[in-house]
Amino acid sequence: MSEMWRRLLFLLNRKQHEQDLADEIRLHRDLISQSPTRSLGNVTQLSEASRAVWIWPFLETLAQDTRYALRTLRANPGFAATAVLSLALGIGANTAIFSILNAVMLRSLPVEDPHRLVQLGSPRSDPARPLRLYFTNPIWEQVRDHQQAFSGTLAFGGDRFDLAAGGESHFVEGLWASGDFFRVLGVPAMRGRVFAADDDDIHGGGRAGPVAVISHGFWKRHFAGDPDIVGKTIRLNRRLFTIIGVTPPWFTGLDVDTPYDVAIPIGCEPMLHTDRSALADRDWWWLRILGRLLPGQTAQQAEAKMKALAPEVNRATLSANSGADRQRDYLRRSLALRPAATGFSDTGTEYRTALFTLMAVVGLVLLIACATIANLLLARAAARQREISIRMAIGAARRRVMRQLLSESLLLSILGAAGGLLFAVWGSRLLVRFLSTAGNELQLDTAPDLRVLAFTMGVAVLTGLLFGLAPALRATRVSPNNALKEHARGMVGSRFSLGRALVTGQVALSLMLLVAAGLFLGTLRNLLTTDLGFDLHNVLIVRADMMQTNVPKDQRPRVYREIVERLHAIPGVSSASSSRMTPIGRGQWDSEVYPEGYAPKAKDDTLVYFNRVSPGYFATMRQPVLLGRDFSAHDDLGAPKAMMVTESVGRRFFSHANPIGKTIRAEGPGKEGVYQVIGVVKDAKYASVDEGLTLTVYIACAQDADPWPGVSFEVRTERSVETFIPAVRAAIGEVNRGISLEFRNFETQVNESLLQPRMVALLSAFFGGLALLLAMIGLYGVTAYGVARRQAEIGIRMALGAQPASVVWLVLRDVAAMLAIGTLLGLGASLAAGRFVASLLYGVKPQDAAPLAIAAIVLGIATGIAAYLPAHRAARLDPMAALREE
Q: Nearest-5° angle of CA 260, CA 265, CA 268?
């Protein structure tokens, strides 16, 4: 009663406030009509008074509604906890995924006016394919020296620099930077200075010799924040560089997920790559080029200038190693621009589709949570009908009661958002660790910023209105006179259609998420069980770099052979070999070939992937030789060039004929010549587990006239590979202690390549299970509410002799109808949405019957359990007790 009196007093006060406002408005008009000029000050005072009259009652009402909502939720702790936890999981999951998207795609670089930065690209012949974004150093020099579209240009490339003096490598994230890199970005030095244009000369000397700029994080980690760091030296790939500056802590480079440690000028590249420099190489695509737009210039105007410059750049940088067709294509290349304000992220590029898919998944989970809470609010509104009717009977406007009910919904959503934000901070960090690998640890900044906070609050308000508006409208729609009558407890609606519609929608959305989880789990299962073409277990990969050794180039093949022999002699090693690259790695080496007697049927029809391997490679990898022979020691520089092909290559180029003895001509550096096919091996994966049919050919290491300084050794062991690392390190050190070494478990390398499908599968399964749980809660609530409303009817039926089984069916009949409709809608929506995730699937299709059927069965069992509990309770109802209560 005290609450009603306070309400009546507030209404009287509001009427008085409105009367005072009307009097002031009339006075306002009288003053203006008498003397508009003289009354200007009074008008201002009256306006401020009018605003005060409105603001104070609004704040008082808001405070009162908030206090009342808190008391209501405190009186229903079970409901409040369920609602807040559901919203915290839903909003937190959305915020966590959005935090990753914000870090890799939306957050602007912390540099001067980042929106004026654009990246240079080259359109491909196929408009559907993205721009080429890497360029050679000759192209960069032409753009730098001849462009007139920008106020400044820069070029950069990523790399890893080795701090070790020999033996096992200690890599740090390196950055090749042009002389104007920091100036164009507007990044000053926190200590010392940054690069100047004359630090970046072709001899790597500059005005201060080989110089380096280090990041703030690296300065703290590696040098313990030494205040006298400027002028000290650091050893990179066995070369000494003088540290001239430290950048501020807010600048970590242009790659947002891989902060740089050490930056050195591009002109120093020949010092680290002594036998093959990239500065003059017209086939080495390794640099990104950025420009800063001139004041008042648009990106379209700058792009037009670059298009006009493109022919001159192409003519000056044409490679003589390409064939006539490729040279013609190269000369027709154009230049284009794209925004670069958000920097670059391999994670954003590689996981773009997966992140947007997960964003859609967690969005559906949040919708299901909203439907669940809306159902619970509908049930609570039905229980509070008499209270609401009394309020409306004593004069409360429907608008006022709705505002009070919505305040409860918004309070729930705000509490859920607060919990969700904490969950998102933890969840986003967990996702970053999940995406990190031993060789590539991500360091994304997922800390909440204004954009993330705005997203969270926007989602909170939207969800509060989404699940609160319909129950508020429904609760205030009844007539107070009818609701106050005796036995009018069921006046909300005879069939509770809104609750049924919400449950049907929950079933449909839950089925969609279960189908998605089934498809992604099936994809992961297929990837884990697919035939790779080789045995990945018990293989140690040793990446060796001879760039900084004193071994002459022509002696490298001999050194490689000696290392393989020593590795093979280690007790417990069953076989050893060397190769240019290992499968399922980051490297690719492809080129067109010209097989004997084969006429190409389409463009890229003769594009194959290369690898250069030693004798014993196929035995080490356990990739069966199907026809012919393996490479031998006789396949050296003086022998005819030999090639081994996969069975797919043999079928493609030689049909059903025996490929042994056939010839294949290749072009390009490192593989030019005519090769004779000496053997056919089983098809094997080349770059990724989920790739389709890959045409691969193998050529002999010993026949490389220009041996590459980097090589991989494969060591097959009889037990855990980690225990062999010291012996392998010692064996290679006996040959040459200056070789830089990096060790990897081949099985780990392959498993890390499956991070994306594993993440999508596990998260979709988790959120699918969460959606199913929320749907069960919603269905249970609606069924239990329906049983409570029909308690008198059920009592009469049982008093007249109805059996418990018929009562259970009476309750489950409506549930079966909702489940059937929701399942049909969910199956249709799943088939329609399947094409958007097709690129993430492997070995399964969105229209496959098995995932759809399994999802429908799981959903049917779970919802059946949720509905059976209140149905079973109804069947055990005491008829007399039900009738007495009614």
A: 120
